[in-house]
Amino acid sequence: MKKILVIIIASIFALFTIWYTAAYYSTYSEGVRSGELIKFSYKGVLFKTWEGEISQGLSGANIFKFSVEGKNEEVIKKLEEYQGRYVKLKYKERFATISWLGDSRYFIVEVVEEESPHFRKQDN
After folding, report:
1. pTM
2. Which 3 state secondary structure label does DSSP give 96?
3. Which band of pLDDT confidence, cut at 50, 70 and 90, is reported for residue 60?
C-alpha cells in the first residue's frame, strides 16, 4: 500500500513539474505592443506580482494587460519611471498563467519610451 501511495505522489509531482516547465519555458508568441502606460502596480494577497496596463488608442477602449517577473528589475524600474507616457513593450506570451509569476499570460521583457503618434509635432 505504501508503495502505491509513493508512486501516485511521485507521478503527481512529475506531472506538475512537466506542466510547469512547459508553461514557463515554452513561448506561445512574442511581439511588441505600444500605448500609453496607464497602470503599473505591485499587487496580490498570497503572491505579490507586478501588473500593468497600456491603453492602445485615444478612447482607452483597447487595454493591453501584462505582467513583469520580479527578477526583471530593469524593466520594473523603467515602467515605474514611464508611468503616464507612451511606451513600446516587447513581450513573450506563455501557454498558461502561473499565479506566483503574474495574472497575465503576457510577460514584458523590454520597455522603451516612444513618441506618441497622437500628439506628434507636425512640421510646417
Report:
1. 0.76
2. coil
3. low
